[in-house]
């Protein structure tokens, strides 16, 4: 299986903290915008995570007090003006592929958000499984502010499922900033913490998840995504099959054996 500990990406920061992959964008002087290259490299990295046994969870954190300012105005938006339809569609499909890779990577992803988190940066947060933010987090889906539709990278499908149709519609139509307090009340953020505690809180949550059954987490993430398009009967049947598969794992046996002797199970992910 792929081992990710030695990964050396060119367009973002990467390090392993035990079994946790910690990712951050590395252009703090510009509030960490995305480029064509960083979109593609992040997409490929999340695709590879499917096969990485050494990674149990991912933390996507800010750099220099900001999470991500979206697509770089000069490196992305400017060049897009000169592209034909084929080139534009190739770009928009690539950005969507990053979200699909995050959803399909098989690992729980935690976004730790501080400062600016807008445009495609807000999408990265949205596409994560869990979100922890600081009181200074400012999240906005800015696409209509630059003359585009707000249906970008799955926003019209995913955001309403997190915060509700009406709230999502307001943010997507207006492009206004969602405050940390609103994000907390609406369920976009799982927790609000002080800025100096953000890193530790995110890692604590990631390690708590990583200590659980890795195969079971993968199946949970898979079903959370697949059941969007299922009716209730399909979903119940799909979950029955998924759970039966998980019952064949050694982690299920470990949990039973630990319960019998009144000890806490030590999961190994198989």
Distance between the termini: 13 Å
Sheet having the most strands: 6 strands, mixed
CATH architecture of the largest domain: Alpha-Beta Complex
What percent of the residues sit in helical stretches (DSSP H or I)?
40-55%
Structural class: alpha/beta
CATH class of the largest domain: Alpha Beta
- Whole-angstrom Rg: 19 Å
Q: How do the helices and strands follow one another from N- to C-terminus? A: EEHEHHEEHEEHHEHEHHHH
Number of structurally distinct domains: 2
Shape: globular
- Strand residue percentage: 5-15%
- Kindly report the average pLDDT value: 94
Structure description:
The chain has 270 residues and is an alpha/beta fold. It folds into two domains: 12-210, 2-enoyl-CoA Hydratase, Chain A, domain 1 (Alpha-Beta Complex); 214-260. It has eleven helices and nine strands. It has helices spanning 36-49, 73-80, 85-104, 120-127, 155-163, 165-174, 180-186, 198-210, 214-226, 232-246, 250-260, and strands spanning 12-17, 20-25, 57-60, 109-113, 116-118, 130-133, 138-140, 177-178, 191-192. The strands form two sheets. A six-stranded mixed beta sheet has the order 1-2-3-4-6-9, with helices on both faces. Strands 5-7-8 form a three-stranded mixed beta sheet. The model has no long low-confidence stretch (mean pLDDT 94).
